[in-house]
Amino acid sequence: MPTGPNPADFAVVRATNLAVVLRHVHANAPCSRADIAAETGLNKATVSSLVADLIDRRLLRETGLTERRIGRPATMLVLDGEPYVALGIEVNTDYLALSAIDLGGARILSWRRSFDGLDSTAARAATAIAALARRAAARIDRQDRRIIGLTVGVPGLVTPAGVVANAPNLGWSDVDLAAALRSALGNPAYPVTVDNDANLGALAEYRYGAAAGHPDSAYLTGELGLGAGILIAGQLVRGARGAAGEIGHVEVVADGPLCACGRRGCLEAVAGTAAIVRRIDPDNTEEALRDLDPEVAEIARRAKAGDKVVVDALTEIGGLLGRGVAVLANVLNPSLIVLGGHYVPLAAWLLPSAQAELNRRVIAPDAGGCRLAVSELAHSAAASGGAASVLDAVDYAKLSV
Amino acid sequence: MPTGPNPADFAVVRATNLAVVLRHVHANAPCSRADIAAETGLNKATVSSLVADLIDRRLLRETGLTERRIGRPATMLVLDGEPYVALGIEVNTDYLALSAIDLGGARILSWRRSFDGLDSTAARAATAIAALARRAAARIDRQDRRIIGLTVGVPGLVTPAGVVANAPNLGWSDVDLAAALRSALGNPAYPVTVDNDANLGALAEYRYGAAAGHPDSAYLTGELGLGAGILIAGQLVRGARGAAGEIGHVEVVADGPLCACGRRGCLEAVAGTAAIVRRIDPDNTEEALRDLDPEVAEIARRAKAGDKVVVDALTEIGGLLGRGVAVLANVLNPSLIVLGGHYVPLAAWLLPSAQAELNRRVIAPDAGGCRLAVSELAHSAAASGGAASVLDAVDYAKLSV
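Above: the input entities. Below: the structure tokens describing the complete assembly.
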């Protein structure tokens, strides 16, 4: 039965209002105290007191900016958030990447190290991911900052509950990676989640990279595997069971080469990184797939030197890539499709034929305005997207208790 | 400068609150006055007065339902809305369809008449659409009801501003159909908008048909043209320029038959209604395309009678349809794909091979849970979706003034 208010109620109201102010600044920064009052319905004295509290906790800070308006110029507020750090890690077949971004949006750490994902079990991968997370945590602790969450990107199907249902290139199926990581990290106070690498890459390119200003866009991973992350109206498309974005396994060449998935002629099998390496350096493929960076760098070097075999192969593969992305463009009409990962150093030779094929195959005039672009984040996209997804999920009410 | 409240302010506040109550009942019906008060923050006396007003205007009505809760049973409220009617019309190559649905969700009119869209100009089509709308309006007027909006579905690319950029099967490009209709209807007080037929069909199947409970789903029109309407989390996917859903022009057979769009091997060219008619009744195709109903009925009759040529052809075309919808399933992971229009009477022979091919081609286990289903609305889907889109856009604040 309801009773009169007691001090605990006031504490709850204050925590709620602190969260309201933080969320408002997160969405609308820079903004003034008066803006916050006008748009949240809180009165100005309350807003001033809440802002003072949030500045004390280094969740907000004042900037020198002022707004032109009638009367006195106002001091503008932005998120500070320096003490609060979001972690993202990507595990892939040939590397681990880590990204740490603070609540104010500043990038603190960006690491990448080689990792033999092709020969690792899920348990060994969890150990390696946890070791990397602990190294970052130690550094963040020394700076008197606090980790507020970790999201790990995986090249495979991840269920809404965060279980890796299937990651064919890693050889994993039905792996509860989030649980394994929580355990390996000693059940940390922050949330640990798992998502598809392409989804996280799409989010990162939209927030920090080539897809800024493109709420309808897609991102192709360009790792050993080939997946797409899809944004519609700025929201990730996950599908009914979290399996959206499998452009890598759309058939683009009937009875084409065998794909790792067991089908034939999949986009991944004809235009994925392994297909590029196999086509250009067929003698050395199996070793090359374990460590793609030097292999891709060598292909780019030869293309740059004008090696006709390499340039012709990349031009042809670009055309096949164009067939695949034309499917995305016909079905979803994005304004931008970003090529990521190992496509980045090869983009100069892949992109022109891919864009031409895209334009030919899309029924909407001018390919519906769809343009191909190169990732600005390369192999750090999924890890950055992991950190971004932590920042998106921040519970400001908890942070401000 | 702000001054004290005056009577006009109170009227604005009351209109706003009436709209808040209507929107709440629209989203949560059936609900009690106490529910409304608890969830809107309005006090109970205010809610009672607002509800009385809305019942007077026949926007709400009481039902006999009561809620089990502590204390007295509560009278439950639902939308009445009988006096307010939403109109949807579809124009296609061989028919016009009209659907009228009142604000309470009751279907009032469902008409379909043949129409020679292949030989009509956009101006003649606008005249025919307006004539149909006027006939409905006359009937609705006689019942003392009021039209609150008209949305027209068109088989083509429609820009966000409602201009038909391109409707290849109708031979239209850059047609401002909404403006033409407004003029032909004497600039009515209600809004007139235009949308893609597949989008409206997807919306209708989700609200009233086979896709109920499937917020991640797609709908294939199955008219002379073949388009998809796509829902993600219950929202229509339109794309950056409104050109999403062009599954009909994804290539499924390399160097396949010529498509109306000028490309080869498009899904529409190998598994659209015209392809089915051409395959089964090649001597009579051009006449048959003008009036598809009897042609499709004859094909269904022959299949039902066990005509092996027809059954084999439909089984093979079902497989090609499966290739096409596998693209949607790999990219979007819907839980349901609905086959509409002329596919409905042929579904018994198309569906099994289509589902089998879908299952083979989708990388997620069990095709990511994606099932093919038959439209429950057939050729009235887009018209019903037009009415649904009017109901979704109702400005309750205006309605309650």
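Note for the figure: The first strand of chain A starts at residue 31 and ends at 32.
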